[in-house]
Amino acid sequence: MPVVEINRESFFPGGAANVARNLRALGAPCRLLGVLGDDNAGEELRELLDDQGIETTGLLLDAGRPTTLKTRIVAQRQQVVRFDREHTEPLSPAMANRLLESFDAALDHVSAIIFEDYAKGVLTQSLLDAMQKRARRARKVTAADPNSRHPLHFAGLTAITPNRAEAFAAAKVPVSEPNDDVLADEPLMRVGKKLLAQWRPENLLITLGEHGMCLFRRGQKPHHIPTVAREVFDVSGAGDTAIATLVLAMAAGAKPVEAAEISNHASGVVVGKLGTATCSTDELLASFARNRR
Question: Please, what is the Cα angle at 95 between 89 and 97, to 5 degrees?
Fold first, then answer.
């Protein structure tokens, strides 16, 4: 039987917490809203986030569910197996109301809201709709990263950032082999057009792995952004980096194409690292310097 000898153990915030890590790595203040279990993993996660300067007062404790914990076994820079400990049942109505109260308390103090759905039971359609309504009324930049295992209806966001598989699943279109010429990828173009009509976001940014990204906007031609990644070790968390950087750039006043280009560079940095990683300001500037056109 296989035997694993542990040489080193490390802990990293994942999921929506990794989006927050990416925002902090670029110097942005941020706060998390979500639910933790009343357990050791929850305490350790909160300590890690506090150490990184991420506001955690919006993380509520639910003694009835464990903090999601994912353990990766990595050998020679390759993941061998992953163990997941989690419960994904929907939140109780009382807990959902407490989360909405935390959202209301934070809304006047932020420039943008990112909805991260990892299908863990926290983000429901009713809670999303209530938060979206409030955010839209407050004229905040809003974005979401959809999950194909838990389809939600997103309406009228500033940006949505699915990967190729998530986009095809949301559009209910069979996944096809990607075309190296992205703008000639007819199935992808159909999916982009369909999701613009379905979700009506201002910007739809579909991440395409080695083919970069494609930005779709109503009334404008799709804009392809080729990848700038020099090497790919691990794509874990690359979507977190993409949405964090995109939204931060937009909140700072960047135009959609500019924000997408910045997001593409940051994603190119993190896929060259092992595990859920972040991109610093210096690394982002270095990527632009390497890839001047």
Answer: 125
**pLDDT tens by residue, 96-108:** 999 999 999 999 9
Contact indicator for 213, 207 with CB cutoff of 8 Å: yes
Residue 254, helix vs strand vs coil: coil
Phi, psi of 46 (to 5 degrees): -60, -40
- Tracing tokens 């159909």 back to the chain, one arrives at 190
Query: Using one digit for the tens of pLDDT, what is the confidence trace for 130-181?
Result: 999 999 999 999 999 998 888 899 989 999 999 999 999 999 999 999 999 9
Show which residues are catalytic. Answer: 240
Residue percentage of the chain with pLDDT more than 90: 73
Total domains, the chain: 1
Distance CA 52, CA 54 (A): 6
- Reduced to 3 states (helix: H, G, I; strand: E, B; else coil), residue 156 is coil
Q: Which domain holds residue 67?
A: 16-290
Q: Could you tell me if 146 and 160 are in contact, meaning their C-beta atoms sit under 8 angstroms apart?
A: yes
C-alpha closest to that of 31 among 7, 3, 50:
50
Domain presence at residue 8: no
The structure tokens 């209806």 sit at 153
CA distance 211 to 80: 26
Running DSSP on this structure, what letter comes out for residue 163? Answer: B
The residues with which 115 forms a beta bridge, in sequence order, are 144
In a domain, 228, yes or no: yes
Q: Which residues contact 2 (CB under 8 A, 6 or more apart)?
A: none
Q: Give me the sign of the Cα torsion angle 253, 258, 262, 267.
A: positive
Task: Tell me the per-residue pLDDT of 3-28, one tens digit each, with 9 for 90 and over.
Answer: 777 888 888 888 899 999 999 999 99
Q: 85 has which bridge partners?
A: 69
| Arithmetic mean of pLDDT over the chain | 91
* Global pTM exceeds 0.85: yes
